[in-house]
Amino acid sequence: MALDKIWVFCEAGNDGVATITLEMLAKAREVAGTVEVFCGGDGAACAAELGDHGVTAVYATGDLDGRMKGVSVASAVAAAISDGSVAAPDAFLLGTTYDGRDVAARLSVKLDVGVLSNVVDLRLDGDRLVGVEPVFGGTLNVTSRFTGGGPDIWLVRPKSFEPAAVGGSPAEVVDLPVPDLGTTGGAVVRDRFTEESEGPKLDEAAIVVSGGRGLGAAEAYSMIEGLAKQLGAAPGASRAIVDAGWVPYSYQVGQTGKVVKPTVYIACGISGATQHLVGMKGSKNIIAINKDSEAPIFAVADLGIVGDVHKVLPKLTEALEGR
Amino acid sequence: MKVVVCVKQIPDPADPGALDPETRTLRRDVKLILDESDSYGVEMALQLVDAAGEGSVHLVSMVPNDEVSGLRTALAMGADSATLVSDEALAGSDALGTSRVLAAAIERTEPDLVLAATESSDGYTGVVPAQVAELLGLPSVTFAKEIAVEGSTATVRRQTESGADLVECPLPAVVSVTAGVVEPRYPSFRGIMQAKNKPVDQLKIADLGIAAERVGWAGAGQEITDVAEAPERAAGEVVVDEGDAHERIVAFLDELKVI
Predict the structure, then answer these.
(1) Is the minimum CB–CB distance between A134 and chain B shorter than 8 Å?
(2) Is the full-model pTM beyond 0.80?
(3) B36-52 helix and B69-77 helix, angle to the nearest 10 degrees
């Protein structure tokens, strides 16, 4: 038996609705009769694309005027449910993103229900959803369900589902007013900065070249950037070198960073801690270069090179020049 | 300025973890250490108090047993004192149960600023900081890359999908910090000796006025229905570099038609 209604948290940028949102919509359509979205921002701009992905209504706050998305959207949803203007859905799906986590967290307190995080699959078990979360670097899959009264709040990892357009008519735009946030609403965005990054985005690139502690020093990361540029790939990193401050957090691939599933993943000087494996095991092809032949990364690599990244990478980059 | 840092003691991630066969959750009856993710919050707090020229850093943590070794690590870094909510009833707590306990413990300390990691390294739900803020009725800024405090306002550079936002936030507030933003100091020998005598206030959930059914297994409102081995990814060819391994990589990329 399908659920009556699912609400998906919609995120959008200059190039339209975010991929994570479209991924969740595909799954939501499978398990619920009605799929609607809620978003912090302008709903009209996304209505056509959302309708094309099976959404019938988009509940939108309108411009937040610099207020934080998490508290604004969660407060608006909770207020709409509490004053009866909106019937609570059976489940909320939100992406494991910067704003998705904030909305889920605030909403869970307001509705006094739990959150299940990091799920990579959802399916119906009777009239309730169950979710699958990989643990220990993806070696075990733990399936969980909510036992309380609901609604259920799920935080979904990117790349868990395939987006699919179904050709529906534009979604109806419904106003979702943000109530007075009181002391919770004090934080305001004063300025926004866009990091100019050349080449493809880490979670969308066909090839990802990642570096780890085996590089030895922050300066050696330039070898990763050099190879990535040569391949038209996105540069990534293990948590170890992000924690060490060599590269920013946005480069991190793994449990606490981004999930990537490129055609080719090249792990350079990365031992393959479970933390890292969970973020890249789904890659179609994995190449690993590491000095230690016992490194766990070799257990998942299609091609493993036992060798020194300082020797292999410069030769590899040079060999690719002019190709 | 009084800064509270939420810290978690977790099983050493370097040791292979195991699931408790009965509860099917991570076994925590092993030696616990300070979650490395939390060392950035502790360092940030110490730097902010330094910059303010006055103040203190107080830790708040919870465990189902009496473990304090991870807290001692943070105290040895320079934190002044700690509250440890230590209660058997906390075993099996989900994120919301955890946040209820942390929020109640934090409220008693009347902080100007609450810092936390963006997520723990073992449970990594990533929702606790904003839940704590909501429970305390405070604003929150998550994924901070930089924090500066001027009077009763924090200015935070927040990581976003496309770059960063500069966020201004009145205090008190909850801010979660990403790893790698500061370099956590190593505890000095003197710090380690001093940490042994720093006050650690141990509380039960009853001391915080929290009912047992709101935390632990009882309060989690969720259950694990299945644990299964994930399909293994088969290992492929392994080549020892003899100076020409790059050629094998080029050939492999050629086969895949990506170059």
Answers:
(1) yes
(2) yes
(3) 30
